[in-house]
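User: Let's play a game. I give you a shape written as tokens, and you guess the letters that built it. Ready? Here's round one.
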């Protein structure tokens, strides 16, 4: 199964009764393993979590910390861009040249690198004087 297909499949499990906007994400790592996540909303709205965050949590829980590629998919007019918070979360575990595949359920695809999605990002290097 392709990374995008894995993201599409897990999207079906999203818990999104408040926004009705289901999102799926899938990550591959140097081991070749695939980790998936979906958005999980909560009646206390700010407690909801994004699909990318779920996939990252699954990856880290399995003992891996390197995103080679991440695919994100939703039912929207144009390929879904990860939200700002998720761009920072992805950056924690990815090189700037790692690929982010953004897609719609009906087959539109856009690909950017992590560095293109979050240029000039805050990193551990900025805390060196601390
Ligand atoms: N959402 C994600 O899962 N990932 C994103 O990058 C954008 C937004 C979810 C959060 C919320 O459950 C729903 O989409 C509407 O914002």
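Assistant: Ready! My guess for every position:
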């Amino acid at each position: 199964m392709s990374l995008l297909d894995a993201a599409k499949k897990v999207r079906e499990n999203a818990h999104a009764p408040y926004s009705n906007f289901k999102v799926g994400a899938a990550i591959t790592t140097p081991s070749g393993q695939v980790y998936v996540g979906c958005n999980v909303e909560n009646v206390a709205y700010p407690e909801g979590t994004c699909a990318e965050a779920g996939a990252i949590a699954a990856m880290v829980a399995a003992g891996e910390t390197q995103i080679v590629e991440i695919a994100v998919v939703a039912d929207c007019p144009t390929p879904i861009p990860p939200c700002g918070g998720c761009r920072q979360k992805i950056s924690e575990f990815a090189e700037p040249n790692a690929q982010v595949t953004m897609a719609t359920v009906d087959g539109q695809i856009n690909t950017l690198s992590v560095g293109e999605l979050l240029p000039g990002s805050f990193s551990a290097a900025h805390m060196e004087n601390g």
